[in-house]
Amino acid sequence: MRFHVPEHKKLVYQMSIPIRWGDMDAMSHVNNTLYFRYMETARIDWCLSLNIMPEQSKQGIVIVNAYCTFRQQLRYPGDVLVKMYVTDVGRSSFGTYVTMERADAPGPIWADGGAKMVWIDYTTNKSLPMPDWLRERVG
């Protein structure tokens, strides 16, 4: 299944993550699972910047879908430039779209992916309308 780059997206966060020697697998490229870890690291840092961590509240965001398309093989050494965008903002959910580039040669996309995020009540596990302050940040 191939996902398409959303036309309308808002850059909300970016960071550089070092590629570690141990991130590579027996095929001498970054293991596929690590791309999800890179996306997670950026997403968690973004959430920290918004002060919406699960252990700090009774409400917050959860992932209901995640995907990644591997375009080129990342290898050690180097850093991954991760850019996170928000798209498709709804009543209680929004999409995230992430691109991964080499920090030493920005421009070409080495991998891209994303996740659908839903604002929920952690006690009931039911979706709730996003708070206005979050809607302003992602909209």
What does this structure look like?
This protein is α+β, with helices and mostly antiparallel strands. It has a single domain, classed as Roll (Thiol Ester Dehydrase, Chain A), CATH 3.10.129. It has 2 helices and 6 strands, in the order E-H-E-E-E-E-E-H. The longest helix has 19 residues. The chain is elongated. The mean pLDDT is 92.
State the fourth-level CATH superfamily: Hotdog Thioesterase
Compute the gyration radius: what is it? 16 Å
CATH topology: Thiol Ester Dehydrase, Chain A
Please state roughly what percent of the residues sit in beta strands, choosing from under 5%, 5-15%, 15-25%, 25-35%, 35-45% or over 45%: 35-45%
N-to-C span: 27 Å
State the helix count: 2
Order of helices and strands: EHEEEEEH
- Estimate percent helicity: 10-25%
The number of distinct structural domains comes to: 1
Question: Helices and strands: which structural class?
Answer: alpha+beta
The oligomeric status of these chains comes to: single chain
The main pleated sheet reads as: 6 strands, antiparallel
Q: Uncertain spans, ≥5 residues at pLDDT below 50?
A: none
The CATH architecture designation is Roll
What is the overall silhouette? elongated
CATH class: Alpha Beta
Mean of the pLDDT scores?
Answer: 92
Care to count the β-strands? 6
